[in-house]
Amino acid sequence: MSLISLALTDFRSYASARLDLASVPVVLHGPNGAGKTNLLEAISLLTPGKGLRNATAIEMGRREPGEATGRPWAVSVELDDETRLGTGVPGPGAARRIVRINGETAQPGRLLDHLRPVWATPEQDRLFSDARAERLKFFDRLVFAADPDHAASVSVYEKALRERLRLLNDAQEGREADPVWLDALEARLAEAGARAAFARVAALQALQAAIDARGDRPFPQADLGLDGPAEAMVERGADEAEVAAALADGFARARARDGAAGRSLFGPHRTDLTALHREKNRPAAEGSSGEQKALVLNLILAQIARLADQPAAPILLLDEAPAHLDEGRRAALFDEIVALNLQAFMTGTERALFAGLDGRAQFVRVSGGMLEAG
What we know:
Structural class: alpha/beta
Helix content: 25-40%
Shape: globular
Largest sheet: 6 strands, antiparallel
Strand order of the largest sheet: 2-1-4-5-6-7
Distance between the termini: 25 Å
Oligomer: single chain
């Protein structure tokens, strides 16, 4: 399936906008601040989570000068099978967005039955030398694009982790923490953490196989790894009950340290995604921005291949797609997107950077909240 239209109402910089789409790659070009990334973010919201900016629903509503809160906003798309997907907030200051499929309210996870957006932003151009938490967040998005249950496991885990830390902080301030409730929270953490670890390892193995199958064409290959004790147990052949038991024991042992530190220093949320630049045999973190972006693009194209047999076709969102890529790699990226018959949305400041897509893509100039063909 592919998008045939995108409509926005009071979303970010757009009072109202509509874009009719052909089943070819879409190039959004225009000056900085014109609203190109806002269009990608709108599409990224048609999946569970906070989208490519990781923003709250309140932040997305358009504001006129003097308005304290953003206006109610809406994003909707139509697919070529006549399915309509929408999301937005019903009133000013609403903290939770709602999802509708063909006009009926639905759970966000149902969106994955129709769309599987995969994205890369300029912040990921140095993904492997950035903070560990950002790498894990990036990888977890890749995991739940193929395994929607992973998102639920991570959500349960994070909620229980926050509650456990609140109890430990209370104990540090002299208020007694209920040991029975702590035990229950840590059991929940252990079970959800074990499920997450198994899903991550399975996804890593599938992604590595897809990277290996792609070869070096023309982006460098990475040897991926997961640096975390739970994932290490999975790779050694432990079953889910054994991993959960080890995690529960680890959480219990870490109570005093976590309480003193004011943060949780043990658990699958501390796992790191590692990558070795295969050709150069050195950690990806040591590479330039261009090398790291090329590695990330190869990982994303491997993800696209992994999702090819899913009921919902993937959609690729590349913000500032040409940045840090030389002319040869830009051309190769465009050729791959076209060869994959992939609906991709790419942004850039200069149309000339996408000259390799002339005659093969839909070009849209973005300026001052206006969308013009060409």
